[in-house]
From TrEMBL:
One of its GO terms (cellular component) is membrane. It comes from Hymenobacter sedentarius. One of its GO terms (biological process) is lipopolysaccharide biosynthetic process. It holds the Pfam family Acyl_transf_3. The chain crosses the membrane at residues 12-34, 54-74, 95-113, 187-206, 226-244, 256-274, 280-300, 321-339. This is Acyltransferase 3 domain-containing protein. The keyword Transmembrane applies. The lineage of its organism: Bacteria, Pseudomonadati, Bacteroidota, Cytophagia, Cytophagales.
């Protein structure tokens, strides 16, 4: 059975299962940061192995990146124009959807750091910084460039380093989509050239000019920059192209949802044994992106229990609020919970979930609607970020 819309409505189609998967990805990142089995970090046995397995759940970020590549392709492939007006509207749309709530949380974070201090400052390095350094750090946060500088990557809204990666993809996406209009092979070139370009910056950028840790190490390149994650976005773009070229998605002979889910578990399990070398982390990211594409295709083309579960109203609400959840679940909000006496993992999860839904409903979504109404005249499709 096909669940894919006709080509005449593809750009306006919605995919509830992929909205729901955002909630899953956000939950993975939460349990990566707050591993409930930390007491089993040393030792042996099942609890220790499960602890190691949860240490790989930062793969939720890769799910977001693959999904971003897919959705950008889905929304913009047919309307793409390499013209000034189109590019300006495109970039305005991207910033308008992501930046307002990020700006509010960033300003609140730095205000608490500067005017209140403890317990909101999460690292002692903030206090000895000069006034100039503080301005530079805040500037890098406000311009979404901080994740090219290793020394300031975990400043401001701590998890928002990935927004630098996202925004860099948004900047390159029109060129990527233009290059693959007629054939998919340039995707392989992008997936190869961008990591090599990043490696060139790491190896050959003068050490005297690596201010604030600019592209400082191969490990930083692979784990935290667009160059290290570009192939994951390209996997999503490839999936988007595959889907866009088919009026209906034929159901595969194999149960792809099940196979993709099991393969993801297997890859994460293998990741516990791969070590932390840049090469191992890069290979693991590629493997995760590949099996995630299989899983996503299954969710789009098969009527399964998982697909129905991800489309439940509650899961949809969590998926829509997942962006705020991702930004909120590490940093000063947790200091607020400490002050309120909310210290259990379950209590923290419920609190950050409730706060995320509230911020989505009363802040993020209203701002989006206002900006959407202002942009309605340009007739650009609306994209919900991952």
């Amino acid at each position: 059975m096909s669940v894919h819309p006709s080509t005449t409505s593809q750009r306006s189609a919605t995919y509830p299962a992929l909205t729901g998967i955002r909630a899953v990805a956000a939950a993975m990142v939460f349990f990566f940061h707050y591993n409930p089995l930390r007491d089993a970090a040393t030792g042996e046995g099942l609890r220790h192995y499960l602890y190691l397995f949860l240490t790989q759940w930062n793969a939720g970020v890769t799910l977001f990146f693959v999904l971003s590549g897919f959705l950008i392709t889905h929304r913009y492939r047919d309307s793409l124009e390499l013209s000034g007006p189109w590019l300006r509207r495109y970039l305005q749309n991207r910033l308008a959807r992501i930046y307002p709530v990020y700006l509010l949380l960033t300003v609140a974070t730095f205000a608490l750091w500067h005017f209140v201090g403890e317990p909101f400052v999460v690292a002692d390095w903030w206090y000895p910084l000069t006034a100039l350094d503080k301005l530079v750090v805040m500037g890098m946060n406000l311009t979404l460039t901080r994740a090219y500088f290793e020394h300031v990557m975990f400043t401001g809204v701590l998890t928002a380093w990935s927004l630098t990666v996202e925004e860099t993809f948004y900047l390159t996406a029109p060129l990527v989509l233009w290059s693959v209009r007629r054939r998919w092979q340039p995707l392989l070139l992008w997936a190869a050239v961008l990591p090599l370009l990043g490696l060139g910056l790491v190896l050959f950028w003068p050490a005297s000019l690596k201010y604030y840790g600019f592209m400082e190490t191969p490990a930083f390149l692979v784990n935290y920059t667009y160059f290290g994650h570009a192939a994951e976005f390209m996997a999503g773009v490839g999936l988007g192209m595959w889907v866009a070229r088919r009026p209906e998605l034929p159901r595969a002979r194999l149960p792809l949802t099940l196979l993709g889910s099991l393969a993801l578990v297997a890859v994460l399990a293998a990741g516990t044994q791969m070590g932390e070398s840049p090469a191992a982390r890069f290979a693991l990211g590629l493997a995760i992106a590949g099996v995630v594409c299989v899983l996503f295709y299954g969710l789009l083309s098969e009527a399964t229990l998982l697909q129905r579960a991800l489309a439940w109203n509650l899961v949809q609400e969590l998926g829509r609020a997942s962006y705020v959840f991702y930004l909120l679940h590490v940093g000063v909000f947790m200091s607020v919970l400490d002050l309120a006496g909310v210290t259990t993992l379950g209590g923290r999860l419920l609190a950050v979930t409730a706060a995320s839904i509230a911020l989505y409903r009363f802040v993020e979504h209203p701002l989006h609607l206002r900006l959407k109404a202002r942009r309605a005249r340009v007739q650009m499709p609306v994209y919900t970020p991952v």
